[in-house]
User: What shape does this take?
Amino acid sequence: MLDGRRIVLVEDDETMGGSIAQRLEIEGASVLWLKRMQRALGAIRTPQQPIDAVICDIVLPDGSGEELFTTLCRTATPPPFLFITGHGGIDQAVRLLKSGAADYITKPFDMGVFLERLALLVSPGEALDFPPILGVSAAARRVETLIARAAQSAAPVLIRGGPGLGKDLIARRIHDLSDRRAAPFIGVNLARDGDAETALFGPSGALDRVGDGTIFINAVDRLPLQHQLTETLGRGTPARIITACGHDLEAGVEAGTVSAELLYRIAGMEIPVPPLGTRPDDAVWLLEQLFAKLAPARAGHLTGISPLCLEAARDHDWPGGGREVRARLVRALTLASGDVVQPADLFPERQTKATGIKPLAEARDAAERAQIIAALDQSGGHVKQAAALLRIARTTLWEKMQKYGLS
Assistant: This one.
């Protein structure tokens, strides 16, 4: 089930940690067991080998699982997190799901269920679940047009977008539609690969193996040796270079963490991907597409998704993008007791919230977030143009996008 997978276990309880680590190793996984948050932070941020998943307790002796996850998210996209929590920590775990964590499980749990949930996170077939196009909205069609144009060009492509928006699928589409489709497509994720220099430039690295194919570099703003890629692009390479990052590389240039020359070299063409929360039609369409693929294998008694559930999906912000849609649906397929998926199955956290008037601060945040989403949609995802529409500085907009899960 987990053959060859590298799992980080963050658990200070000797009995539980030992039991989980032993079972994971029986299943074929390589386990790094850490008992403190600070040790885990360093190991996950700069791993010696790519990490497939992190299993993390909510309560740790020198911090919390939430603090670990949110700290990692400030600088990169962490590996999939499966949180372990007691019943009293469910609200916290759900909050983490909304921030991009993959799943949670409550104590006590059945080991078979636990392993099944973990296998879903590391399944190499997850990308195959997603449809080849981004959606049905006008915004998605604009992205499809840019993909088609990029496939007809040899220029470097920069894909901008937040987590879970299918940047890797877009890069693959460009390659598959181009005249390089018979050559290799090699992906390098700098948020996950421990040694970026070796992965890209070393013997048997991507540039050594790709020939005249395509290299996709995700989280390019995390590249430590930017001058090497800049020089490679400057002198020319037979390979096609496609890169991806968040929406605002310019902020990295201003902060001195991203080379202006590198930005100039990689942005021959740009494809901005609007947040899924700005595309409710696409969110509902994706949910139905994934249901058609996942439901028959996982919950054969279900016949569909209720209209109320689809409406709830339309109103949700989807800060985790398509990955959040899939994670919520997988969980809903195990929770649903009737013939159709209901809102409580897809959004169980809403059952724990008291009804009534929202606090004024929460209402203000919701209104501000809605305006930012509208500006990003109108500008096609360009942060600078959206900031001009909102009459605020680009750095201010970037900070607010991070606050509201839109970066």
Q: What stands out?
A: The chain has a mean pLDDT of 83.
